[in-house]
Design goal:
single chain, two-stranded antiparallel ribbon, 3 helices
């Protein structure tokens, strides 16, 4: 069996330590391709006192704080969390495309500017 090991997982006596328990407030910065039906459903969940469903989340932050904040909602319900930090890639994540005779440039969104700020000099 494979085990992930990181600093602080075990104490000096080799006993596993409990994860840091910090409740961070999450806020939606950008919603991509959200339909009117999805917005209405989220509003109905909120008005009913239930949390809206989150799908395909991009959470910007340190995993040391973010992952423990997700425990109350997702403990025992998640099979995989994929963490892919593109640190110091030097890549430009915008791209150009053409549709017929028209040319378009996809500029970085607010989230991309924050997540990849090493690229754009932030």
């Amino acid at each position: 069996m494979v085990e992930l090991i990181w600093d602080g997982k075990y104490d000096k006596d080799g006993k596993r330590t409990a994860p840091l328990k910090v409740a961070l407030p999450f806020q939606t910065v950008e919603t991509v391709n959200e339909s009117a039906q999805q917005r209405q459903r989220s509003l109905e969940f909120m008005l009913a006192g239930r949390d809206a469903e989150w799908r395909n989340r991009l959470i910007w932050g340190d995993k040391k704080y973010v992952l423990p904040s997700l425990l109350p909602e997702f403990a025992g319900k998640v099979d995989l969390i994929y963490i892919d930090p593109p640190f110091a890639t030097g890549q430009d994540f915008s791209f150009q495309t053409s549709v017929g005779d028209e040319h378009f440039t996809k500029e970085p969104s607010i989230i991309e500017q924050k997540a990849y700020r090493d690229t754009w000099g932030g």
